[in-house]
Amino acid sequence: MRLLYLDSLSVIFPGRTLIENVVWSIFRGERHGLVGANGTGKTTLLRLIVGEAEPSSGVIARTRGLTVGYLPQEGVAQKDRGLFEEAWSGLPALPQLEQEIEQLRQMVAADSSDADALERLGALQHRWEDLEGYHAEAKVARVLGGLGFKERDFRRRASEFSGGWQMRIALAKLLLYDPDLLLLDEPTNHLDLPALMWLEGYLGQFRGALIVVSHDRDFLDRIVERIAALDRGKLTLYHGNYTEFERQRAVREEQREAEEARVEAERKRIETFVERFRYKATKARQVQSRIKMLERLQPSDTALPASSRRVRFRFPPAPPSGRIVLELKGLTKNYGDVQVFRDLDLVLSRGEKIALVGVNGAGKSTLCRLLVGVEAPSSSEVLRGHNVTVDYFAQEADFHLDPKLTVLEQLEAEAGSAPQSGLRSLLGAFLFSGDDVFKRVSVLSGGEKSRLALAKMLLRPSNFLILDEPTNHLDMASQEVLLEALRAYEGTLLVVSHDRYFLDRLVNRVLELEDGSMKDWAGNLSEYIERKSLDVASSAEEMTRARVPVEAPHETGFKSRERKRTEAEIRNRLSRALRAAHDKVENLQGRIDQAEARKQEIERMLSGEEIYKDVEEYRQLLSEYDALRATLPRLLEEWEAAALRLQELERDRDAELSGSNA
Known about the structure:
Layout: E1 2-13, E2 16-27, E3 31-35, H1 42-50, E4 57-62, E5 68-71, H2 83-88, H3 94-110, H4 115-131, H5 134-146, H6 163-177, E6 181-185, H7 193-204, E7 209-213, H8 217-223, E8 226-231, E9 234-239, H9 242-277, H10 284-296, E10 324-335, E11 338-349, E12 353-357, H11 364-372, E13 382-384, E14 390-393, H12 407-415, H13 420-429, H14 446-457, E15 464-468, H15 476-488, E16 492-496, H16 500-504, E17 509-514, E18 517-522, H17 525-532, H18 536-546, H19 560-606, H20 615-661
Parallel strand pairs: 3-7, 3-8, 5-6, 6-7, 12-16, 12-17, 14-15, 15-16
Antiparallel strand pairs: 1-2, 1-4, 8-9, 10-11, 10-13, 17-18
Helix pairs in contact: 3-4, 4-19, 5-6, 7-18, 9-10, 12-13, 19-20
């Protein structure tokens, strides 16, 4: 069932086209990752879908009764009432739900061929069963607990929580609302590792359609099955998770480069012919034909995707430190009567790359500030080794920057005699291009300030780096720039992050803050997670058990006979859809085989010299060849979509059969 259709959607600002002629269909149960460099319009596209913004042109068609839930990146606030009550408000009202189910049941009774009504009726019945009675209260508690709230928090005023926890409350309400279409804009930015992995398990059981914007590769790999890539206003759709998207994109780039090489070789061959016979009257007709062919061989206007153009950068070398970089002996930190941690012992050695992890509120940022000397411990001291020079990236980027300077001046003040061209290349890697480098720091957004602070760090020679959530505001291309630089960095590194892809490729030791104490784990983050039994599979299994509907002890209001009739109608509709999907796949495969065979035949004909003796036949073949090259990619995309739809229907059939047998 198609929930949403974007038809030729465009957003145009004076002097700039942000989104251009986007066509996109979203079906129930689909899971899309929306990716692209910062500033390409991902958030704008989500706001268009939810109705918070209007397009310059184009149409957004929504299915009847569509419910949409939207989590923005920031800026949410909760009402001044208890946390549990606020989360409970996210649940759809049971009386309204029952009324809509009854209306749909009457529609199906009047017209059993209404596939959309049948599918929505089934979805709403599942939702109604999940929410009935005391099961709803347990679900609210389970969602709040999964997102990191303690039971003692349930009676706290929702408005008392900090900004990051406010975002978690908003996310909890959306998950409880259980909409037909869920839009999440960077949902992992405010989550610690346990909450992030719980969310993956929960979304694995979500029945609606999902569109998520995220720069967390591992998160996308685990929850999405399609990628929508937004680049310079154009939206390109790929099947598979993020890793598969990167593979397909690389293949497309190779194909584009190969095609450009073929065109260039053909151009040179024709130009050689023209130059050789230009002044021979007997060859005048052939020369004119070749000149027209040259005019048709236009160069490709397709540039590399913005995400594939990266600048590589290395940290400046710093004098080596002593073997022991830092040592803690019985370190304790209190804020008044609140103890953050106590009696911490730690030794960091030269060249180690260490991850500092723990739930939000465990004291990770506090420990970073203690190590760099911004705060003082309550007892003991931080002992630095011989010749240690520390550089620190804090989550609050204003800590590092002078608001009176421009972006370029900020780097020039740090870089000394470094050439401006190199500084502008570095700024480009962190998404400051063109006139952006002349903006005052005071007018930058929070994300822009974070990126500038990171770029500034890459200019200072230091042998001990402390980074507190450095990837939160970076797109994937900028993350790769930073990751490559840190992997080549020869000093000691301590990094706070919840990005598993980033940490797994960087660290060789994990420090965990928990309940005021520290545990030390050797190995990368995946090995730590395995030892801590925090894998996604166990989370998903727990969620599956938790979401099994509890049979209500009282009359539900829907007769068993009516339910069975509706289920039979759904099964019949599924069988018809399966047959239609299978026929479509077979038909498209036949058309693809014919087109590819004809394309190969024309290529063989064009490789011979005889074909050029008949200009008209050559022109017809070339026209047919161009048409086939334009048609084949579209046929392949249609075939991929049809084959994927067939697989989904087969899974639905198998699940239906398993349920019936059970």
